[in-house]
Amino acid sequence: MSEKKKIINIAVIAHVDAGKSTLVDAFLNQSGVFRENQQVVDCVMDSDDIERERGITIYSKNCSVMHGDVKINIVDTPGHADFSSEVERIIKTVDTVILLVDSSEGPMPQTRFVLKKSLEQGLNPILLINKIDKKDARIDEVVDEVYELFMDLDASDEQLDFPILYGIARQGIVVRDPSEVEGMTVESGAGQVDNEGNPMKIKKSAKGMNGLDITPLFETIIEHCQPYPDRNEEPLQLQISALAYDDYIGRLGIGRITKGILREASTVTVAGEGGGTKERKINQVFVYRGLKRVPTEQAESGDIVVVSGISDISIGETICAQGQADPLPMISIEEPTLSMYFMVNKSPFAGKVGKFVTSRHIRERLKKELEVNVGLRVEETDSTDSFKVSGRGELHLSILIENMRREGYELAVSKPEVIMRKDENGHLLEPIEEVVIDVPDEYSGSVISKLNIRKGMMQQMKSENGYTRLEYLAPTRGLLGYRSEFINDTRGEGTMVRRFEKFDEFAGEIPQRINGVAIAQEEGVTTPYAIFNIAERVQMFVEPGTHVYEGMIVGMNARSDDMVVNPCKAKKATNMRAAGSDENIKLAPARVFTLEEALEFIDDDELVEIVPDDIRLRKKILSELDRRRDARRSRNG
Questions:
Q1: Going by C-beta distance under 8 Å and a sequence separation of 6 or more, which residues neighbour residue 566?
Q2: Which of 90, 135, 324, 330 is the most core-located residue (most Cβ within 10 A)?
Q3: What does the pLDDT read at residue 552?
Q4: What share of the chain in percent tops pLDDT 70?
Q5: Which CATH code is given to the segment(s) 421-505?
Q6: CA-to-CA distance for 582 and 478, rounded, in angstroms?
Q7: What are the phi and psi torsion angles at 23 (to 5°)?
Q8: Distances (CA, A) of 192 to 179, 199, 211
C-alpha cells in the first residue's frame, strides 16, 4: 500500500473544556507540523475570535498529521450540544473517535450526546482519561462511569471492548498506565526541584516531557483502526458533510471520499434530496497537510477533501462520477428547540453605528448563514421587517447574533421561545433538558428550591468532598433566564451543564421574572445626581454619561411592577451648597449584560437592541402613553 493510501480519519469528542483543542495541539506539535522556532498559540484550531474569547470550539475543523507512513486526518468537534448539527455531520467522515473524559468530572451530559452519535454510526471509540495530574482525580471511578455510559447507550460487545489510555494533554503526555506519571503533577512541577530543593514551576507545553509523549496514542489509533481500504477502482462517491466559503474561490464543499478518485477540473454528477441530480464541474481539489489546505491534482478514497467550483453545493449531497449517480442517505439533523424573532432596529439610535441596518441586509445575512449552519431555520413572517429564527439553544442563536454584531449589523431580537410539538393524540409536548449541577453543599438547598419551582424533576443527588451533584430533568422553558440567578445563588462557585434530552408532556405554567424594570422617561444623557436618587430602589444597568432614549430599560425595579424614571435629571443650580457633598456622590457599579444574559433577562414585551458597539434593553412599545393604551386594550379584550 502506498503512503497516500494509508489514511485514518479520527475525531476528538468530549464535553466542553475537557481538553479537545489542547490534545489536537499536542498532535500537531509532536508530528513536525510546526518549525522548531515557530511561534504557536494555544488551541491553534480555535481560530475564530469568539472561540478564543470563550475558550470553546464552535465550528468543527480539520487538520492532518503523519505518523510513520500513515496519514491521520483529525477533526476537532464542538463539545456543546447547541452545535450538535456540526457533530452529527462530522462523525460520518471518520473511522474512529477519541473520547476525552476529565479525570475528575467524569462523563458529562455533552459527553453522552457526542458518544451516542458515534455509537449510532457503528464506530469503536478509544477512551482517553485526561488531566490525570489533577489533585481530585478519580481515575478508576471515571472509567467505571464510562463503562456504565456505554451500556446505557446500548453499545455492542465490540464497542465495549475499547482501549483505555491516560494523559495530560497540556503537557503532551499519553500513557497506557497512570502509574507511569506518578509524581509528575503539574502543581509540583512534574516532580522536579531547583538547586534549593524547591518544586519547579513548569510551563504549559504540548511537546511531552521526561521522555513521555503521545506516541502511545498514535500507536493505539493505528492498532485499533485499520487504514481505509483501497477503493480507488470504484466509481467516485463523496458526500458533503460541511461547507466553507473563500472570498477568492467562492463556496467550498468538505467531505470524505467513500470510493473512487476525485480529480481537479473534472465533470461530476451531484445527487441531492429526492433523487434529483445535476451535472457540475469541479475546479480545484484540496487536501489537508498540517493546518493548511493544499491543492492537489487528485485525491484518493478515504481522504477528507475540499472541493471548489460548485456554487450550489449543499450539505448531504453526494458527488458521483459523471452519469453514475449513487447517492448516500441524506444527513438527518435534529430539529431546533428554541426560536426568536430578528427585527430591524427601529430605536431612536438606529443607524448611528451599524453599516447594515435594513431588512434586506438582515435577510441576506441569514440566508448566507443557512448555507453553512444546517441546525438553523429561518422563516419569513407577516412583517417584512421581522424574521423567525430557530436553533438548537440559546448559545447557538447568540453566537450567530454576536457574529452579526461584529460584522456591523444592527438588529433587535425578542425573548427566546421554546418550540412546542403535538403528539399523535394532539397532546402538547415541550423540550426537556438534562441538567447536571455541581455546587458547594451550603447552596444546594437554594438550587433545589429554584429548580422545583421551574418544574424540574430530580433524578439523582450525591454529595462528597463538600460538593453536591444534582441531576435534573427540567423543561427548557423553566431554564430560560435561570443561569444568572444560579450564578448569584451559588456566589459563582457552582457549575451547570445542560443538554437536550427529549420532548415530553407540557409541564404547566412556570413563573417568569418577578421583578419589574425601570424605563427611561425621555432621551438624554444620564447624570450621577439622577442615578443616585433612582438607585435606592433600582439596580441600575447604565452608568452616568450614558445616552438613553424614551422606552429604554435602565435598571431592574425591586418590586414586580415597571417604573418610569428620569435618569437624565440634573441638580438644580442654586447659590447655596454644602461643602463637598456635590462632588462625593458614590454610586454602585451598574450591571453589565452579556448577550446571553440580556436574552435571558428580557420579558415578552421587551427587546434586546444589538449594535456593533453596544447591547441595550428596551420595551417593544417605547412611548409610556402607548404602553398604557395597549395595556388597556388587552384588559378590555
A1: 520, 521, 522, 530
A2: 90
A3: 93
A4: 84
A5: 3.30.70.240
A6: 46
A7: -65, -40
A8: 17, 6, 14
Q: Among 174-178, 200-204, 286-290, which stretch is predicted with the lowest mean pLDDT?
A: 200-204
Instruction: Return the exposure string of 405-442: e unless at least 16 CB atoms fall within 10 Å of the residue's CB, then b.
Output: beeebbbbbbbbbbbeeeeeeeeeebbbbbbbbbbeee
Domains 3-224 and 517-635 share a fold: no
Q: Pinpoint the alpha helices (H) of 41-171.
A: 49-54, 84-91, 109-120, 139-152, 157-160
β-strands 386-391, 377-380 pairing? antiparallel
Would you call 194 helix, strand, or coil by DSSP? coil
Cα–Cα distance for residue pair 223/203, rounded to 1 Å = 32
**What CA–CA distance (Å, rounded) separates 473 from 460?**
10
Domain covering 517-635, topology: OB fold (Dihydrolipoamide Acetyltransferase, E2P) (2.40.50)
CATH number corresponding to 3-224: 3.40.50.300
Query: Are the C-beta atoms of 516 and 603 separated by less than 8 Å?
Result: no
92 pLDDT tier (thresholds 50, 70, 90): confident
Distance CA 479, CA 600 (A): 9
| C-alpha cell of residue 376 | 438553523
- Bridge partners (DSSP) of residue 495 are 438
pLDDT confidence bin for 55, thresholds 50/70/90:
very low
Cα 584–529–534 angle (5° rounding)?
115
Domain residue ranges of the chain, discontinuous segments joined by +: 3-224, 237-321, 421-505, 517-635
Any idea which architecture 237-321 has in CATH?
Beta Barrel (2.40)
Q: Given the C-alpha cell 470510493, which residue does it identify?
A: 259
pLDDT tens digit string along 191-249? 444 444 544 444 445 565 667 888 888 888 888 887 778 788 888 889 888 777 777 88
Are 330 and 316 in contact by the 8 Å Cβ rule? The answer is yes
- 455 burial type by CB count under 10 A (0-12 exposed, 13-18 middle, 19+ buried): buried
Residues 6+ apart with CB under 8 A from 208: 26, 30, 171, 172, 173, 214
